[in-house]
Recover the amino acids of this structure.
């Protein structure tokens, strides 16, 4: 006799299959690169990975991971405050803080977990969190968690990138200021690069507005690292909101506790190590020393969940070092992005405009997006179609993602395949 759950799950899965929205996991039989070997399809051009700088299979990044594994074993077998912090964690957190221009940083097994540690730990009753409607799901869920476990934390949502007028950031700030209950800290949170649109937040204008209302500005720049700014430090670098990179700290010196004031105009960041910065896994919060200390002392993901494995910490640290020392890699990505956007546009497709490596081609219908992606795969090009619930109903799209690993010939082949659709 099937359980209630079995019957319900079968009904959902059948309706997904019947409507052409069922997602099949592609099996990749080799490393991530400009081309990948897919089970059943063979060698294909890859235009759907977040491997923006082509570092996922860089020999130095791979070697660093192997060395991390040899030197420290598989992992900590413990949460960090008990006996789970290795030197590579400290080194990586120093590197991240330097990259972001913050006093300190702390790593987690994913950016999702980092976000989950942020609002529920740092917010208190009376605080208000104001969020862009297109923020990543991890921010949305982190806010939901904060408002659920701490009664009296308020939330408000403003229209994507709309800073003035109806349903704008200013309207939400005004409402928070006028509220008798929302008497605590105001937090404004946005993606730096919006993951489904590829558009960017207007951080300088948001900073000015936050200052007017005494609000803190939180940015998830998971798609900005490796892509935005001359060195790929992120959207704040793109807007000139962070000082030049200082010299790397001497080995052994705990830069996270250094007295040097951070020259950065964003209050808190979350970010991922699972995209441009090595592509393995892992996420971080980068912020003031006191915010990080509070997360270490009180964050449930820090107190009750294991650390990033050393192999990943070492790979990610090397990936960031390569990014910072090879600005030509970031420039190559930018050149590829400009070339791809121009060529896709010339081929008659409507690509949402922006300087980022995410080039969404809107096709509206989820089943159509999935069918187009299937046809592209038959043509040897791996691009994913996104539909509901990843994007709102009616906004399905093909999300083309560009990498520094691509050549112009790869991009030409993508465009030829798109023309055949
Ligand atoms: C904007 C943004 N933030 C956070 C995440 C989560 O990253 P992670 O895979 O490290 O949890 C993603 C991943 O898709 C993302 O696009």
């Amino acid at each position: 006799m099937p359980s209630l759950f079995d019957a319900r799950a079968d009904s959902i899965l059948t309706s997904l299959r019947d409507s052409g929205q069922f997602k099949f996991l592609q099996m990749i039989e080799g490393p991530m690169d400009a081309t990948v070997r897919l089970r059943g399809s063979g060698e294909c051009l890859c235009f759907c990975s977040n491997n923006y700088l082509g570092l996922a299979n860089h020999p130095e990044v791979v070697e660093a991971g192997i060395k991390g594994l040899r030197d420290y074993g598989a992992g900590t077998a413990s949460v960090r405050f008990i006996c789970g912090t290795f030197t590579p964690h400290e080194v990586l957190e120093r590197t991240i803080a330097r990259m972001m221009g913050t006093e300190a940083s702390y790593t987690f097994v994913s950016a999702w977990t980092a976000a989950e540690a942020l609002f529920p730990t740092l917010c208190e009753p009376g605080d208000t969190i104001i969020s862009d409607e297109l923020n990543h799901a991890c921010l949305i869920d982190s806010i939901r968690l904060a408002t659920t476990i701490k009664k009296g934390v308020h939330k408000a949502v403003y229209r994507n990138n709309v800073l003035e007028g109806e349903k704008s950031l200013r309207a939400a700030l005004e409402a928070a200021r006028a509220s008798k209950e929302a008497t605590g800290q105001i937090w404004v949170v946005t993606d730096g690069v919006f993951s489904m649109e590829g558009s960017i937040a207007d951080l300088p204008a948001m900073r000015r507005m936050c200052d007017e209302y005494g609000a803190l500005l939180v940015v998830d720049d998971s798609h900005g690292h490796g892509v935005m700014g001359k060195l790929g430090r992120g959207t704040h670098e793109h807007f000139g909101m962070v000082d030049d990179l200082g010299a790397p700290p001497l080995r052994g010196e705990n830069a996270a506790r250094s007295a040097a004031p951070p020259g950065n105009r964003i209050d808190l960041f979350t970010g991922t190590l699972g995209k441009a910065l090595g592509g393995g896994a892992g996420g971080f919060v980068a912020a003031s020393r006191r915010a990080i200390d509070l997360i270490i002392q009180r964050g449930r993901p820090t107190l009750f969940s294991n650390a990033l494995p050393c192999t990943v910490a070492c790979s990610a640290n090397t990936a960031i070092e390569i990014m910072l020392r090879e600005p030509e890699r970031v420039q190559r990505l930018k050149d590829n992005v400009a070339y791809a956007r121009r060529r896709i546009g010339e081929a008659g497709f409507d690509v949402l405009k922006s300087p980022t490596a995410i080039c969404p081609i809107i096709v509206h219908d989820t089943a159509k997006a999935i069918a187009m992606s299937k046809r592209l795969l038959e043509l040897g090009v791996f691009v994913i179609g996104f539909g509901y619930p990843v994007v709102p109903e009616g906004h399905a799209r093909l999300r083309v993602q560009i990498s520094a690993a691509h050549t112009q010939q790869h991009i030409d082949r993508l465009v030829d395949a798109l023309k055949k659709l």
